[in-house]
Amino acid sequence: MINFEIDGKPVSVPKNGTVMDGANQLGIYIPHFCYHKKLSIAANCRMCLVQVEKAPKPLPACATPAMEGMKVFTHSGQAVTAQKGVMEFLLINHPLDCPICDQGGECQLQDLAVGYGASASRYTEAKRVVVNKNLGPLISTDMTRCIHCTRCVRFGQEIGGIMELGMAGRGEHAEILAFVGKTVDSELSGNVIDLCPVGALVSKPFRYSARTWELSRRKSISPHCGLGSNLIVQIKQNRVMRVLPRENEEINECWLSDKDRFSYEGLNSEERLTRPMIKQGGVWQECDWQTALEFVANGLKDVKEKHGAESIGALGSAHSTLEELHLLQKLVRGLGSANVDHRVRQSDFRADSQMQGAPWLGMPVAEILQLRSLLVIGSTLRKDHPLLAHRIRQAVKHGAQLNVINPIDDDLLTKVRNRAIVAPDKIVSTLAEVLKAVVELKGVEIPDDTKNALSTVSASDTARAMAASLNDNKPAAIFIGNLAQHHPRYADICKLAQHIAQISDARFGVLGEAANSVGAYIAGAVPFDNRFGNRNADTAQGRHGGPGANASQMLGMDDPASGTGCKAYVLLNLEPELDSYNPRHAVKALAAADLVVMMSAYKSRAAIEGGHADVLLPIAPFTETSGTFISTEGRVQSFNGVVAPLGETRPAWKVLRVLGNILQLDGFDYETSEQVRADVLPAGNDVSAWLNNSLGSLAVSPIEAGKENKGSEGLQRIGEVPIYQADLIVRRSEPLQRTRDAAAPLAWMPGSLMAQLGLQSEEVIRLKQGEGEVQLPVAQDDSLPANCIRVASAHPSTAALGGMFDQITVEKS
Amino acid sequence: MLSAESLKKIDYELTKYPADQKQSAVMSALAIAQDEKGWLTTETMDFVAEYLDMPSIAVYEVATFYNMYNLQPIGKYKITVCTNLPCALSGANEAVTRFRERLGIGFNETTADGRFTLKEGECMGACGDAPVLLVNNKRMCSFMSNDRIDQLLEDLSK
Fold first, then answer.
1. CB A798 within 8 A of CB A792
2. In this complex, do A181 and B57 lie within 8 Å of one another by their Cβ atoms?
3. For A545, which of A13, A109, A332, A659 is 20 to 30 Å away at the CA?
4. How many angstroms from the chain centroid is the CA of residue A597?
5. How far is CA A409 from the centre of its chain?
6. What count of Cα atoms within 13 Å lies in the side-chain half-sphere of residue A371?
7. Hey, which residues 153-192 in chain A have their CB within 8 Å of chain B?
């Protein structure tokens, strides 16, 4: 530790600490623009000049290392003169357009100009004007205001992982810009808006829509990815105007992904459902709540009488709150059915009977930085978990080795030590190889439940390298991504990965797909029994006496002919044609039902026009209801509604409660959402007892059998969920839909396959899965494994297709 | 994009730096590319970026920072006259006037026949030889009186 003095107060900072660090510790404010605690030190704004005893000139506090016995004066005559001088230079070219500038009121330059600026300028020459740049649909520029602090440039290099902005020219000709003709396309790009200390980079969707001092700030939690980012939602006249990060060092630090930041535009979408609607005689009609709820209750009663309680099913998205999902499962279980699930994109449920708890990250998010080796299996990491990907990038920067087993080779913007890019049906065998390599490395017995599967496997060099990386570098972790969770052999992937983790002494985690992926299990929105402390679960049995039907059975995704579909569905926050593993089968199953109740914040076009819904109940999105999300690391975070519900929209927990009352079910007498939460979490916010990734004694099925596609005879589809199609709100965020990440899906395939099929780039082809067919242009991506076609799912243009990882055929059109 | 010969030169530059520090060679790579192409197009900078495994914007930063890199097409001979104080005191302004008269162009302009481009330069570190100028970034000419300017233009026009 180095002891020194600032403004006469003693302070000590660690070795390599700076004067700025000491000042922050003491709570002494030193004016600055380019310094940011999360970015490297540039010392180019010069605003933080301070006086240091025995130094002939003022020194920048951010870049001056603390020295033993140093005496620093931050507000002495010399320091203030220097700061005022710098401010005069900064203001020379800065326009006086604060009255129309979006940054006005929260502008560091404006604030500091009050303290350090002169009341009039001595500068009489011409000011410079800088042309504005087009940086895409999210960031608006006013480059004349730029003071060249380079925070945005350093953010790209150091946090975003991709340098998209740079400072061209020098001196008076310096300007911040993207390379000729390029825009800023990083999934974290919106953070430069927060970083910009002036109004040069401002939010495009928010532009000119409110003044910052008119906005009230309310706390909230992001409803998108499993991280559970903390938000500040800013409101004006009962409308969400803007979303900003709420700093939480353990979760999102001071960052937000663009998905969290700009999805709010979807809340104000014209597609919002504001009144209940019932379809009668094929015509949709608006009605009041009483009519709608009685219709639903009578419908459910009818189906129960005619077909039995077990023909009622409920599906809720894991983007719904803990309270909503709890009441949803309580409702169906109260009616006597155990058919309730939230895993609509999952296709392999073999592990259900062996699950010991809710699958979770297996470690706190903040500890990712300490990892020295990682294996990520089947993940569009940057797109599904933008900020977890950032944590992993930071870990790699600190020396961690990143290993990847994936069907796609998207740039992770960081060094990958070992990578195995294999077809979806080779993921299991690749993992088996790694397990074999670990077993050999440690000289232990092959675990019993995988003996069968491992008998034919021999480890490749890559597998050995991965095994060694996990074994030799501690702490290590293995993460299962979204692609693997949707994979037809998810149970095997999970089990093999767990063995690898166990033997190599690594942690094991499942990257939560949605904001409440963990919470959905704990709320009981799964068709099996009382393992998660859910006391209602065992009151109902499934049709076969055992657990209820899972999402795949309910939606007839295993086999539409099996007739496992339900006669009545209650859908919460779901658009089945986009949100299920096999949308074609799902829509078919819904169309065959007597009653489909959609609880949604939106008038889903497919539901209205496609005719698979009978009732639409307008429920509140996360900004209009109180609720709780349990993040992928098991953190329970409750939030309040930040605005009043739009129109006649009601919070879903209230709707479900009233529905429970009308149906005269027991235990629906909740007054507040807190009471519902207390019911789910009687012991408070510690859910660690229910978090468990173990799969008991599940045996891994033989490597070349099971539901795996035979690679030689068919082409495999790789159907990832695009970043801005993952849930109902982002789908309707217009600015996000204009980004490059939201571009319409293409049929990506390797050049070898294109040559084999005689296809040219951009040629429109017919893609078929079963009876489903779509037409898409071909695009070449040589990093894809042979015989694979990457066609995004969850997009209207591919919704007619079948399973996300099933066989697909190609025809010229 | 670049000729095999240029790539060989860039590869030689790369040997001067550690293998994971390829971007250290960006200035020489850009100079070599410019020698071959005459000026740096967006595509050339993109190519250099890819070749050195660095973001294109970072190449652009370097190319715009140093004024010896030409980001616009130029004539066959780029004449850069120093107009800083020591040169100005020793007749740089007269030299510039002579060029303007002889070539009929001003700063940052190119003659109609595409032979000469005139540029204003900063101190070249040879104030004792003032006024000085550079031909195509590499050849320095000293004591540029009107006679010597006429001689230079005659030589270059051949």
1. yes
2. no
3. A659
4. 27
5. 19
6. 33
7. 162-170, 173, 177-182
What interface predicted TM-score (ipTM) does this complex get?
0.89
Average pLDDT, chain B: 95
Q: What is the mean pLDDT of residues B95-101?
A: 95
Both tokens of A745, joined, read 């899906």
Strand partners, A722: none
CA atoms within 13 A on the CB side of A288: 1
Rounded to the nearest angstrom, the minimum Cα separation between A416 and chain B is: 14
Test the A interface: residue of B50, B57, B65 with most A CBs within 10 Å: B57
Alpha helices, DSSP H, located in A308-343: 322-335
Full DSSP string of B96-126: HHHHHHHH---TTEE-TTS-EEEEEE---S-
B41 touches chain A (CB under 8 A): no
For B42, nearest residue in chain A (alpha carbons) = A180
pTM exceeding the 0.90 threshold for the entire prediction: yes
> Are the beta carbons of A181 and B42 separated by less than 8 Å?
yes
Confidence of residue B66 (pLDDT cuts 50, 70, 90): very high
- Sign of the Cα torsion A622, A623, A624, A628 reads positive
Beta carbons of B55 and A182 less than 8 Å apart:
no
Q: Quickly count: other Cβ atoms within 10 Å of residue B25's Cβ.
A: 22
Look at residues A705, A715, A725 and name the one whose alpha carbon lies nearest to residue A802: A715
Point out the residue among B42, B46, B60 whose CB comes nearest to the CB of A166.
B60
A591-594 contacts, C-beta under 8 A, 24 or more apart:
A592/A565, A593/A565, A593/A566, A593/A567, A593/A568, A593/A569, A594/A299, A594/A302, A594/A303, A594/A306, A594/A307, A594/A567, A594/A568
- Banded model confidence at residue A683, pLDDT cuts 50, 70, 90: confident
